Structure formats: structure tokens, C-alpha cells
Amino acid sequence: MSTKHEQIIRHIDSLPVGEKISVRQIAKALKVSEGTAYRAIKDAENKGYVSTIERVGTIRIERKKKDNIEKLTFAEIVNIIDGQVLGGKAGLHKTLTKFVIGAMKIDAIMRYTGAGNLLIVGNRTEVHEHALRAGAAVLITGGFDTSDVVKRLADELELPILSTSYDTFTVATMINRAIYDQLIKKEIILVEDILTPPSEAACMNVKETVRDWYNKKKETNHSRFPVIDSNQKVLGMVTGKDVIGQDESLSLEKVMTKNPLTVGLKTSVASVAHMMIWEGIEVLPVINEQQRFEGIISRQDVLKALQMIQRQPHVGETIDDTVSKQLSSWENTGDTSFLFEVTPQMTNQLGTISYGVFTSIVVEAASRIFRQQKKGELAVENMTIYFLKPAQMESVLSVQPKILEAGRKFGKVDVEVLNGTEIIGKALLMCKLIDK
């Protein structure tokens, strides 16, 4: 049986996009306390079902899929620019296809502006009206207002007209940054994207017996099952090791491994891969915020997802991507070394290389030296940085990794970083090796 929290989430999900939601309305409709309704609405906001805007309220928005995550709703734009809604509140749930800066004459602006666009412009009332009639929303910069006629038109067409105190350049930069951050998120595959749902995932009830396990194994051809109770909470895992030699009439509660490792829906697949490697696990139960069973994720699922990530082009770059691109190899007295130029975005407030970037360089260099020697990929288990001297902006560093030990599943590598002939950093990495 589902909890009141889950019932509220399902109710919100069933509401039409664009509908306004309030704590009191939800509490009255589902006969729950206002505290329960408030917590569920906040959860729905985290999951992307609704968006809350100051002085407007909470509205149901379209939940994004991975393929359109780079598109922002007008409701999200309001929060990003710390703006206010002057009119057209009913259209806040809509997504914008692109934004246009209106620094041109009106006829030129209208050539570039169309349905689904966001026109960023100052206090030019006639432009506001033309843009709305063309199907575009309007963002007024500089904290200016617009006419009552334009506001009524925005309400009638259900197209938001927004205002912000920021200037046009700052607003465009903020929106671009938000889109870029979304693109990075798009590349990060989460457990919820690849899990096997409860309808397909084989699991067992805590009251079932060892005999039932053998029947389930025969039926599914699997041997590892999450064990759940009547409230769908994961209590344990049962495998062939647990049941072998046990009396078939024993309940699973007596033989299962209790308090198993679990993962959440929003856990990244890369984190799950590390967990499976460290613990030697083949299958992990997936749970939601209420600790209820949501499915399983297997080692095969994780490997397929990681292979898929490698084949995809990266659109939004993280700092690690930038470090990887800037690290170039060269031969130095028979040993492989790497060159790295310290660019402005790699520095701290003092203009010297940041600690985080130095760590990324060391790990990337160690990874490459193991790949070159066909040792496979590595996952860093422990890293010690002995010392780190400042490296100024535009310095060209020489990164020299040296493998000290390389077993079948374990490796140790020492990395020296030089600026000219001076050693400015030294690190020792203990790694686990992953066969591809």
C-alpha cells in the first residue's frame, strides 16, 4: 500500500501542465495535513514536476527527458535571473527554444523572433507587444516595467513577460550558464535511467522459504534476489551462497544477508561502478527517498551504460574534460611524460594552479600511463600529495608518471610535476585496475 507522500506525488503528476498548486489545496483534496502536503510538494519540486516562483506560487511544469534537458522553462528562467512576472503567468510552464537579444531596430528584431523564443530587451513597449503577437515571451532588463496593455496581452496569449534588474549581457550569460550546466547533467547517466523496474526485477518476500528461492532460480535463471517486506522495504539480499546446504523449509529471513548495500535513483552510474568494484557485488537493489524498492541494477547494466557514455559526444565540458584535452604527451629520455599549460580557468584566487586541477592532472596522467601499457582503466583508491608549490598562470608543466607496481587488480603509481627543471608537485596513487 502506498504512503500519503507517494499518493500526493502521483496526484501532482496527474495534474495538467501549467496548473497552480498550493499546500492548502493539496491538503484539502487528499485529506492530509498541510505539513505532509508541503513536504510532498518540495519533493515534487526536486523531481522536476513543479516549480516555485516568488510572488507567483507553485505551478506544475513539464518534467524533462534526457533528450530535451537543455531546454529551460520560463519558470526556471524567472528563478535563474531572480526576476518577477509582470504578466502571462499561465504560460510559465512552457519551454523556450532559444533566446534573442533585441539590440536592433524593430523590423530586424522581428525577423529573428518567433514562437517559443525569449526576447531579451529593455523598456521598448512597442517591441514587447510585437514579440508577444509573434508567439515569443519577453524579458525586460534593467528593472523596467511595461504598459498595462502589454500585460493584458501577455495574460490573453499565455506568454510570460518577465522583468529583471540585471543588464542584458549579464542575463544572457546567466541563461547560457544554466543551459551549459544542464548539458553537463545530460551526460551524467543516473541509476534511474538504466535500472530494471520492479515489474521486471525478480525479488522475494521475507516470508518466503529456501524452497521458494530454488523455484525462483529455476523460473528466472537468476540466483541473486533482493528480499523485501510487505511495505516494499529492502531488508536483505539472498544468493546461492546463503541458501546452499540450508533446510528448504527455513524462511529467507533466517539465511539472507541483512542490511545490504543499496543505491538511490539519483546515484550516478559511475559511483555504482566503483561500489561494485570495491565490494565485488553483481546486483544492487535500488530504493527511493522513502527507502522503498524501485528495482535493481546489475554489473552488466553498468558496463553497458559506461560503454554508451564513451561513445557519446560531450557537449557540456567539465573541468576534468578540459584538463584531459590540455594534457598532451611527449617522449622524454625514453619515458612517457605529459605537458600541461596552466590556463586562467585552472587557477585559484592568487593566479596559481588550483589544488583541484592539480589532482585532476595527476589522476589523468596516471590513467594514461596504465592505458598505454595495456593495464586497463584505473579507479583511484588512495592518493597522497607530498607537496605542491605554486605554478603561475601560463606556466607549461611537465607531468611524469612512473608505475611502481602493476598487478592484475592493483596498481601503484608515482607522479612528479615539474615547472622547467624544478619539481613543484609529487603524488602517490594507489589504484584498482578495471579490465575493459
Automatic annotation (TrEMBL):
Keywords: CBS domain. The keyword Cell cycle does not apply. It comes from the Bacteria. Residues 195-254, 256-318 form the CBS domain. Gene3D superfamilies: CBS-domain (3.10.580.10), Hotdog Thioesterase (3.10.129.10), HprK N-terminal domain-like (3.40.1390.20), Winged helix-like DNA-binding domain superfamily/Winged helix DNA-binding domain (1.10.10.10). InterPro entries: CBS_dom, CBS_dom_sf, Diverse_CBS-Domain, DRTGG, HotDog_dom_sf, Ser_kin/Pase_Hpr-like_N_sf, Thioestr_dom, WH-like_DNA-bd_sf. This is CBS domain-containing protein. It comes from Lederbergia citri.
